[in-house]
Amino acid sequence: MVTIKNIAEMAKVSRTTVSRVLNNSGYVSEDVRKRVEKVIEETGYIPSHYAKSLRTKKTKIVGVILPTIQTETSSRIVTGIGKEISQHGYEILLANTNLNQEKEIEYLELLKERRVDGIILIATNTEPALVEKIKEMNIPLVMIGQEANGIMSVTFDDYHAARELTRTFIKKGHEDIAFIGVDETDRAVGYRRKKGFLDEMAAHEINVNEEWIQKAIFDIDSGYDTMEKILSKTGAISKRSAPTAVIAVTDRLAIGAINYMKKQGIRIPEDVAIAGFGASEITRYLDPPLTTVDYHNEKAGEEAARQLFNRMQAQTQEGTEKVVLNYRLVLRKSL
Amino acid sequence: MVTIKNIAEMAKVSRTTVSRVLNNSGYVSEDVRKRVEKVIEETGYIPSHYAKSLRTKKTKIVGVILPTIQTETSSRIVTGIGKEISQHGYEILLANTNLNQEKEIEYLELLKERRVDGIILIATNTEPALVEKIKEMNIPLVMIGQEANGIMSVTFDDYHAARELTRTFIKKGHEDIAFIGVDETDRAVGYRRKKGFLDEMAAHEINVNEEWIQKAIFDIDSGYDTMEKILSKTGAISKRSAPTAVIAVTDRLAIGAINYMKKQGIRIPEDVAIAGFGASEITRYLDPPLTTVDYHNEKAGEEAARQLFNRMQAQTQEGTEKVVLNYRLVLRKSL
DNA sequence: TTTTAATGTGGAATCGATTCCACATAGCTT
DNA sequence: AAGCTATGTGGAATCGATTCCACATTAAAA
């Protein structure tokens, strides 16, 4: 591999001068510049970025830790991050935990070893061990999707989205609303969306049937199973024996639920209305099209990258910006 | 940031010795090892990977160039690559072209600048300029999804998959089959899948209606529009005025086509049978579930990584392994 | 007891860039 | 003519690791 030294010798100048033409800095006469450029051209020389990093202490790499890339949310966020950082000559080093929570901490260390200039963490939890680790890392880091004390974050307004969505159901006359949630260790998806739902119901003084509030895991089949479970609970509390509406905390859960209901001959939205969260592409094309909440994931990625750059440039590491992105209700025929 | 020099001083040994305990190489007495480890522990020292790279000439990074990460195909492949390479202590540097073909070449240079040990290219085309560039790069590279002379590749057996799928339609009694393809500069998806279809039709001596062979772009709406176009061509050649079956080269195109047909009151599969390619998750849950071709994308990513490692270890850069992965027909109710 | 081998440690060069200085030359001001 | 300033170039240190080699010491073999 040809190095700056080779170029210097071939062009009969010093490495200093080659570096100058490379970086367009300092004084270089037109003659010399031409000569050096010619040699670079001929040899196809490409300077080593990490040798440069060693000197400049900047890798121009942002580490991205994510639970899986196989969801639209993640891939949109990554796209957003990529768009923003590539404008600054940065690249993404990918750290995919494949839903293995312990790996989050492992990858933090690994990214430190790689000396990334900053980290964006698409978070699924806010376990104390993780939060602790982040704080002692001393590398600019922005968390997406979850928030924690003393950590910069870009989050979605899950609480208000859930409230507004619930309100919309209520306005359409629904009172017997079932809820398919997920584990509350996921503060954003599990806890806040549920709290939004419950608070809005309470604000309208509507009793909720506890048996219709179920917990699923993050996949379509689980939505199917959970819907079956809900419909098996004949309404001991409610006057009706079945809900007239269902809110699922993700689109996939909603899709699973719809599938179960269709199989049972339940019509949507005539018999049961339903909505999800996430605005995944397919929701537009379902039959009926699914009402959902769009979180502008790509923007979230961009915004996180912007926040990260702010922090990276800041002399101080103090202060923790937290931005909460707004959402958009996408009302479709399923409601 | 604490360096190996600091550790050496604090532990009152040389950098050489610290390096030895770090890499578990050479002789180090138990006393000294303990002392050094203690200092490392106390300071939280993490060696700089790129300083190491400078010396060892190995970055332990694989660059992945892809057209978009927002398809299941890409994200599955990336997952597969990640699984395989992380076992060897490698990481992924992501280069997302966002469907901008020119950026493929740009990114090749950028990855060279980053001195990645190898590159995996999820390819959409085999333009001469690209192929040329790859060859002059002199970095181990494996292409996924497309193949070209002199370049290592992992491809899907698009041709035979298309033939077998077509055969299945024919066996079910279909002769008037429409085909929704894409541009043939995409050799794999555009050209081979179409050729497989045509050859199988020819093998059964079935005439194809040229007007029912249409070209779309890669999204759901395009599938919708193209289906509309096909159905607007009343059969001047065929004895029927409409096809009894449709093969779409991607699941998304199939979904779009289904949506159009449903809107027209066409029943699937009673009036028109349909199939796609890709086995995207949602196809299982569509109504009716969609017949499709599963290409084991994650395995493809793993295999590409394995091929890449073989090449990276090989002393020679000669020979170009090409592996063709097999496929699996997923027969569902839409056919 | 002398050789030889195994064990243990450090000095210094090296990887490929950047950057601080020192120094040289030329053209302008006073 | 002397002093400045702008321009142009290179030497050498530096970034943080690895690794070759030299050199001790100790233990085992002859």
From TrEMBL, chains A, B:
Keywords, in A-Z order: DNA-binding, Transcription, Transcription regulation
Pfam entry (one): Peripla_BP_3
Gene Ontology molecular function, alphabetical: DNA-binding transcription factor activity; transcription cis-regulatory region binding
UniProt keyword Iron-sulfur, yes or no: no
Annotated HTH lacI-type domain residues: 2-56
Superkingdom of this protein's organism: Bacteria
SUPFAM superfamilies registered for this protein in UniProt: lambda repressor-like DNA-binding domains (SSF47413), Periplasmic binding protein-like I (SSF53822)
PANTHER family the UniProt entry points to: HTH-TYPE TRANSCRIPTIONAL REGULATOR TRER, LACI-RELATED TRANSCRIPTIONAL REPRESSOR
Protein name: LacI family transcriptional regulator
Organism field: Oceanobacillus piezotolerans
